[in-house]
Amino acid sequence: RAALLVMKRDDAACLIQHNWKTWQWNRRSAKLLNSVLRVQRVWLGAVQRKWLKECHAAATQIQKYARGLLVRVTMDKSGRALIRQHQGELNALIEKKPEMSESMYIARTAVVAGKAR
Q: Which domain holds residue 82?
């Protein structure tokens, strides 16, 4: 009888110890998961902020050149002739668009826009 009692207590101790270790493991796992998710959120936020900053800088650059072109066009006669020439090139490109692939059209449009600078 005493051996049976010792065995029951031993089994109970094993079960308690197992449950305790499981609880601690789950708690550590949850803490690790939360930490990893926080690091990922912070990293993704930093990447997005950097991308947004680059986009704003690019937009500012485009606006700078567009405004400069507008000033040149409105101020002098040669500027007005220049804008008519570039507009003619763009119109010709738009007419040829159905014959071109999408990437070729984008590339040609970029070239014409680059010339306008």
A: 77-116
Residue 22 lies in a domain: no
Task: Give the model confidence (pLDDT) of 41-88 as tens digits.
Answer: 999 999 999 999 999 999 999 999 888 888 777 777 777 788 788 888
Asked if the structure places residue 90 within a domain, the reply is yes
What are the pLDDT digits (tens) for 28-41? 999 999 999 999 99
Domain count, the chain: 1
Domain-embedded: residue 4: no
Residue 109 lies in a domain: yes
Q: What is the 3-state secondary structure (H, E, C) of the chain?
A: CHHHHHHHHHHHHHHHHHHHHHHHHHHHHHHHHHHHHHHHHHHHHHHHHHHHHHHHHHHHHHHHHHHHHHHHHHHCHHHHHHHHHHHHHHHHHHHHHHHCCHHHHHHHHHHHHHHHC
